Amino acid sequence: MELNTGTKEILWFVLEEWKLILFLTIIFSLFMYYTNTFEFFEKKGVKFMKPLPVVGNFGARLLAKKSFHQFQYDVYQFFKGSPYGGIFEGRRPVLYVFDTELIKAVTIRDFDHFVDRNTFSTNEPRYLSQSLLNLKGSEWKGVRSKLTPAFSSARLKNMLPMIEVCSQQMVEFLRQYDGKDVEMKDTMGHFTLEVIGACAFGIKCDALTDENANFIKVAERFNYMSKSKRALIFFLLVFAPKMFKYLNISFMNAESTNELVRILKAAKKERRSGDKRRNDFLQLLIDAAQNDNDYSESIQSQTLLDDDTIDAQSLLFLIAGYETSSTLLSFAIHILATKPEIQEKLRTHVQELTDGKEMSYELLSQLTYLEGFLLEVLRLYPPVARVDRVCTKTYILPGTSVQIDIGDVVAIPIYGIQKDPDIYPQPEEFIPERFIGEKKNRPSHLFLAFGAGPRNCIGLRFAMYSAKLSMVTLLKNFKFSVCPKTEDPIQFEKRGFLLKAEKGLWVRIDSLTSIV
After folding, report:
1. Among 213, 233, 317, 397, which has the highest number of CB atoms less than 10 A from its own CB?
2. Cβ–Cβ contacts within 10 Å for residue 234, how many?
């Protein structure tokens, strides 16, 4: 059968322009793939931000035009007055909840529907993948129950002498900067490393006596990654998150992590071969693992705390503790420097209640203005800007017809909530009194610096305990004031996910003994 003229022309065009046709087909296919989820919220009757092809609502973040904290604040403001709303991270839909009762339902009341965090399964070593942040379901619950005793009041009391020693080392460390301008994030990082080294692993890091000590050089690089790796991770997060499970890729520096694991293994070997015991986190893990093994053998079940899981929790303690505690202390010192009237009020409060008294867990608990001060720092400057949960059982949002299916991501914008004038009047003002007395009885799910519900930060009591003790020591020994490099208001770094000042947190330090 002879082809007609029109058909011949089409065939010739295809043969001549097949490269162009293939290119256009690929572009069309990619466009369809990266937009075929964009009706997700419309079908559910949920208000949503209009997404752009491929990048969704994440364009400003991809171009590093907006910090992650600012992005969360802007999302909150966009949906202000709505109980919930949706955005797209690339093609992935994320449901935000804003209503206070819905937040309580997701994080506390109906927690059994939202047990898991939103993490990406990767082909990384088990000593990274087995941390509490990554564990899911019953495995998370079992390991969490094993770790909880490490942060009891009794354990914290036993750690006080170690933190006091670190605090005195911090004083000596800072005296070398008397009358000088200092960047406080890195400086406080030295202190938090020393505290965690002592309380978690029973080792002396020399972070406050030798700035070139091996441990501090290793630990400070745990979150360093090259620009190319950062770009790759960001690309995968937005465009191909399912690829993570096939790749041995970590959000942490591999060289630093491997060295930290080597140090951990040496510490564990020493503990298991000797008779000496310590009152630290690692000892509790080793003891819990031994009890777990004995129990497992008796019932022929699998142990929860194998060596990789112990290493994962130890690394998490070190990394999370270092980053969040140094952030809290450095921003707290920035507040002291920029608000001298609060600094003097806080110093007077501390001196009146502690001078001439031996420091104790109970005495620290009486420092109500200091606690209010630290909580207000965390309200204005939470290290993490958002809480994520993954639906594990089909759920209907209370009071609505919106169904959340298994695997759907639900997010709560910490930074937006904690700057909402309806929850915190005059949100831009620094007011420690909002966390003192009857006012501190605000529902826990409305102060989210440590998360909320059963999956909140397991180390929150330790973080506050060590922060209080360090602040008492700092206030008794130093005065902080602004310097030419002090930035107020602070501009947040735009590339990372954790809170960090773009140009650092610079203040002037003066020893109180040298002030006339």
Report:
1. 317
2. 15
Query: For tokens 């290493």, what's the residue?
Result: 311
Low-confidence ranges of the chain (pLDDT < 70): 1-16, 18, 204-217, 219-226, 229-230, 233, 237-238, 244, 246-251, 274-276, 292-303, 438-441, 514-516
Show the tokens assigned to 168.
């005195």
**Residue carrying the six token digits 């839909």:** 93
Give me the pLDDT at residue 408, please. Answer: 96
Q: Which of 76, 84, 110, 167 is nearest to 413 (CA)?
A: 76
Q: Is the CB of residue 77 less than 8 Å from the CB of residue 415?
A: no
| Closest by Cα among 94, 180, 75 to 388 | 94
- In the chain, the amino acid numbered 431 is I
CA-wise closest residue to 505 among 145, 183, 115, 109: 183
Contact in structure between 445 and 453 (CB atoms under 8 Å) = yes
CATH topology of domain 36-514: Cytochrome p450 (1.10.630)
- Report pTM: 0.89
Every domain of the chain and the residues it spans: 36-514
- DSSP code of 432? G
